[in-house]
Design goal:
The protein is an alpha/beta fold. Helix content is 37%, strand content 21%. The longest helix has 26 residues. The strands form 3 sheets. Strands 5-4-3-6-9-11-10 form a 7-stranded mixed beta sheet. Strand 7 and strand 8 form a beta hairpin. Helix 2 packs across helix 5. The termini are far apart. 34% of the residues are buried.
């Protein structure tokens, strides 16, 4: 058989294979309807949002944060250490009725967040939200490869928050640090192949170690980068919407001189 004749005979098979592969690709990786800046602005202006939530927008810049996350209609979001659900509600609105938001709090965060998150979700007010109450991150049982966005706002340091002083009395909250390796290993399992993790936290001074979590409720950004890199994640992007060069990193985040205006880093990691 001549070479040209051979390729002519083979061409229909090659084309058919390309069509099948294209169809499979379209089936496996559906497009995501990422919310536009206009949609996010409208979401934040919704009359269904509690007034007390809206009052914190200036300090938290949620339009920029949600835009940075690339949240899309129909997404599944895992809101880790969600507290009273301030971001849970925004993600609930963003992903819409075809999406889902898991709001997780472990035993330490739950003791501070229980009343607020229960009130926020009372009477099935946010029907696409599933609460994971008083459950450690590494004990979460949601399906593997199901999460588009894992999100943790101002709480990564709480993995190392073990004690506090209240009314002059030392209160032990954890006997030891949460095993961050176990936490990040679980996130890798739960994320979709193209899923991402967003971490926002109060910056601590370089070299301050884990004790900054107890003393100042902060964490050194380099610790977070090192943890995720060691776990096999890649830092895809960093945002600077919440940076404040006037924050010396020496005061507690609850100090009136800096509260609500701390220097905060924002990282986006991918698998």
């Amino acid at each position: 058989m001549k070479l040209s004749t051979y390729f002519k005979a083979l061409l229909p098979l090659i084309l058919a294979s390309q069509i099948v592969n294209a169809d499979q690709a379209n089936t496996i990786v559906p497009s995501r309807s990422i919310l536009s800046a206009q949609q996010l602005t409208a979401l934040l202006a919704s009359p269904t949002r509690p007034n007390e939530d809206s009052q914190r927008d200036k300090a938290r810049k949620p339009a920029q944060i949600l835009g940075f996350s690339g949240v899309a209609s129909g997404d599944t979001v895992l809101d880790l250490f969600s507290g009273d659900g301030w971001y849970t509600e925004l993600f609930s609105m963003a992903v819409g009725p075809d999406g889902k938001v898991y709001a997780q709090n472990d035993e330490v965060i739950w003791r501070f967040a229980e009343q607020g998150i229960k009130q926020r979700t009372k009477d099935n007010r946010l029907p696409n939200v599933v609460r994971l109450d008083n459950i450690a991150i590494d004990k979460i049982t949601i399906p593997d490869d199901s999460v588009d966005i894992a999100f943790m706002a101002l709480n990564y340091h709480d993995l190392f928050f073990t004690e506090m002083t209240q009314n002059g009395k030392l209160i032990q909250l954890r006997q030891e640090y949460v095993d961050h390796k176990s936490v990040l290993a679980l996130l890798k399992l739960k994320l979709k192949p193209d899923g991402i993790v967003i971490i926002i936290d109060h910056a601590a001074s370089t070299g301050s170690g884990y004790e900054a979590a107890n003393q100042l409720h902060r964490i050194d950004p380099e610790i977070v980068k090192a943890h995720f890199t060691e776990a096999g994640f890649t830092l895809r992007e960093e945002a600077y919407y919440l940076r404040n060069k006037n924050d010396t990193h020496q005061n507690s985040v609850f100090d009136p001189s800096i509260r609500g205006n701390t220097d905060r880093f924002i990282f986006k990691f991918g698998k």
